Amino acid sequence: MRAHDNPYPAGDEPMLEATDESYFDEIDVSIKPGFDQRLLESPVATMARRVPIVFSKDATVTEAVRAMQREHRGCVLVTEDGTRQTALIGIFTERDVLFRIVDRGRNPQELVLDDVMMRDPEVLPRTAPVAWVLNKMSVGGFRHVPIVDEQCRPVFIVSVRDIVDFLVASFPSEVLNLPPDFDCERYRERDGA
Fold first, then answer.
1. What is the DSSP letter of 46?
2. Is the predicted pLDDT of residue 175 greater than 90, yes or no?
3. Environment class of residue 109 by beta-carbon count within 10 Å: exposed (0-12), middle (13-18) or buried (19+)?
4. How far apart are CA 115 and CA 117, in angstroms?
5. What confidence score (pLDDT) does residue 54 get?
């Protein structure tokens, strides 16, 4: 409709409901200083990789938690025989400790991973681009994404920390050369105040 075709007198136009589309129209997505789109297209295998901690479904929760603590990891992967030579059947994370054990008042020494693991976790192949890992984490709310081979055997795992480290390594001068404190002058008290 052209402006002079408006059927309503000036000031009497009906109010249109706000839509999601109008919200997104206000966002300027063209501002991406220095971001290299090719990073998202990089295969996940180009990231630093850590061999996953793997247990069998019959291992105790206590064993898994102690291994997570010892290795400073947020999860363990579960296969039928507890090795990386068999297909992935589950994942056990810090969240499972909180929501499936502590929150329910269960004793971790009496539980096996089969009782509390997340079965059939979402996985990606080694050839998946980094963008797909970010998608799984964002859409699924995951902090860890198992990377598997063609037989769904665990190869490595990508954590949110790995993504952060990947981005920092990709933009070292923009991230690591910042002043020690962000906008610290704003928060300092004035003399005599």
1. G
2. no
3. exposed
4. 6
5. 98
Lowest-confidence pick of 91-100, 106-115, 153-162, 183-192: 183-192
- Pairing mode, if any, of strands 75-79 and 88-93? antiparallel
Q: Which residues contact 122 (CB under 8 A, 6 or more apart)?
A: 136, 140, 142, 145
CA distances from 186 to 179, 182, 190 (A): 14, 9, 10
Please list, residue by residue across 139-149, b when 16 or more beta carbons sit within 10 angstroms of its beta carbon and e when fewer do. eeebbbbbbbe
Residue 122, classed as helix, strand or coil, is coil
pLDDT band at 74 (very low <50, low <70, confident <90, very high): very high
Domains of the chain from N-terminus onward: 39-173 (3.10.580.10)
Contact of 90 with 117, CB cutoff 8 Å? yes
Identify the H or E element spanning 92.
strand 88-93
CA distance 155 to 158: 10
7-16, 47-56, 81-90, 183-192: least confident range: 7-16
